[in-house]
Write a structure and sequence with these properties.
mainly alpha, 4 helices, about 0% strand
Length: about 80
Amino acid sequence: MGPAGRQPFAPEAPLAKASGPLAQIASELNVTAGQVALAWLLRRSPNIIVIPGTTSVAHLEENVGAGTVKLSDEQFAALGAL
């Protein structure tokens, strides 16, 4: 279980919804939802080290691209409120 007793990747979870806040912000920034999630983690604290796992070069490139995603203060706050 994740925060608030939710399963992070369950269909009813906020991050799993294709039309939810994460997807909306990704669309605004023209990036993937995964990149937005990683960018949010990176911005939360300089002490966070994100270690996404993948077996695909394409996904690795997508994950690395999250380092260039710049969330606005409003976007960062909206994601933090989920």
